[in-house]
Every structure is written in structure tokens, then in C-alpha cells.
Amino acid sequence: MEFTLEQVDEVRERTGASYGEAKKALEETDGDVLEAIIYIESNQQKKIKNNIGDKGNEVIDKLKEIVKKGNVTKIYLRKNGETVMNIPVTAGAIGALVFPPAAIAGIVAALASGCRLEILKDDGEIIDINDITEDAIHSVKGKVGEARSKFSRKNRKEEVDEDEIE
Hints:
By secondary structure, the protein is an alpha+beta fold. The protein has two domains: 5-67, Helicase, Ruva Protein, domain 3; 73-165, no CATH class. 73% of the residues lie in helices and 13% in strands. It has helices at 5-15, 19-28, 33-72, 89-98, 100-112, 129-165; strands spanning 74-79, 82-88, 116-120, 126-128. It has a four-stranded antiparallel beta sheet with strand order 2-1-3-4. Strand 1 (74-79) and strand 2 (82-88) form a beta hairpin. Helix 1 crosses helix 2.
């Protein structure tokens, strides 16, 4: 089928297509300009959907990779050398995000009951949370002791001052 350069130009102007795309569309639609425009628009929409689908798949693949890596990294709760609980880091993080007070209460209860909390990284390194928390607990206990002795000294001084007044 023959068509004119004006027809190609009109399809190009209305769709933003290249000369080759406009020519192909006119060939596919037997020179019908309106059908060629519709043909190009539908192909453009398919391309957009495919690009979005491809980007979506890339994002999903990255998320799967992150979750897989997170599932390799584990949180172990051990008592007397035995594993009481084994949680993938991903599940622990989701739980902590969904309900932080429960996560904090669970950690405190586990540590208070004499359990050891360890994180096993995918490279084999073990991070012992108890060691980290013990340092913090000793620091807090030291500060509480200091405050208690200051408070005691202040009370004793006030008692002495009251005795002098009487």
C-alpha cells in the first residue's frame, strides 16, 4: 500500500513517533492515519507497562536478595548452652517495627532470665548482645550507686543540721 509523506508527518506529529515507526504503523493499518495513531499509542502503552513490569521485577529481586541475606543472619536465644529460639534477623526486624514495646520487653525478659542473645552474621561472626548490655548495665549500676551515695550523704547532712536546730 502506498501512502504519502503528509500521512507519515501527521502520524508523527500526533504520536511523537519516529519516521520508521509511523511508516510501519501506516503499513500495518493499510494507510489509515487514525488506525496508525491508535496502533502506535497502544504499542507505547505496552512498552510503558513492560518497563514498569521490568523495574518492578528488579525491585522484587532486590528485596528477595535482602530478605535472603537477612534470613542467613540469625538471632539465637540460648540458655545453659542450648538454643531456645532461632529467629531470622528479617523476622526479628519486622516484629520490632510492628510492635516495638513487645520486642523490648522480650529482650529484657530474656536477658533477665539468664539467656544469652547472640547474632550470627552471614560471615560467621557472632555478636553477643549480653556482652554489650553487661557493659551498659554496669555503667548504669555505677551511676545509680553514685546517686545513692550522694543522696545518703545529703540526707545525713540534713539530719545533722536538724539535730543542731533542736
